[in-house]
Amino acid sequence: MDYKGSENKIIIILKNAQTIAVIGISKDPKKISREIASLLKSVGYKIYGINPSIKEDQLDGIEIYNSILEVPSDIDIVNIFRKSEDIPFLVDDILKVNPRVVWLQLGIRNDEAVAPLIEKGIEVIQDECIYVKYKQYISSV
């Protein structure tokens, strides 16, 4: 589903979510994936970072895992900071953890790769910034 113009659906998703797994979180605090993960944590979401190249157990209080399959709790939103062409390699593990929502960040879209997620009933948002939507709809409510 294309969520442009679907403000009510996005508001419901962001208000009901508690846990967000950020695939592609960066070790560099100046990278956008790290900034957004930290900002989402600061407004009350439980954030899990997913990046196999990070050797630390946590960054800024965000627990870091090699794989989404290692996250020790249910995940409401999987927020992806990876190239569009990398999305097919993530789908099998995402299907196994069965989050409510998969959110591909601004500039990331792969309709073919996300089709199995949609077929399973997982909401998919593509090419949108989760923090921009949070600021637009939630912090102003």
Round the mean pLDDT to the nearest integer and report it: 94
So how many helices? 5
Largest beta sheet: strand ordering: 3-4-2-1-5-6-7
Order of helices and strands: HEHEEEEHEHEH
Question: What Rg do the Cα atoms give?
Answer: 14 Å
Helix-strand makeup class: alpha/beta
CATH architecture: 3-Layer(aba) Sandwich
Q: Count the domains.
A: 1
Strand content: 15-25%
**Weakly predicted, low-confidence segments:** none
Number of strands: 7
**What profile does the largest beta sheet have?**
7 strands, mixed
Write the CATH homologous superfamily: NAD(P)-binding Rossmann-like Domain
CATH topology group? Rossmann fold
Can you tell me the CATH class?
Answer: Alpha Beta
Envelope shape: globular
What percentage of residues falls in helices of 4 or more residues? 25-40%
Termini separation comes to: 24 Å
Walk me through the structure:
The chain has one domain (7-138): Rossmann fold, CATH 3.40.50. It is 33% helix and 19% strand. The protein has helices at 7-16, 32-42, 91-97, 111-119, 130-138, and strands at 19-23, 46-50, 58-59, 62-65, 77-80, 101-104, 123-125. Strands 3-4-2-1-5-6-7 form a seven-stranded mixed β-sheet, with helices on both faces. Strand 6 (101-104), helix 4 (111-119) and strand 7 (123-125) form a beta-alpha-beta unit. Helix 1 (7-16) crosses helix 5 (130-138). The longest helix has 11 residues, at 32-42. The two termini are 24 Å apart. The mean pLDDT is 94.
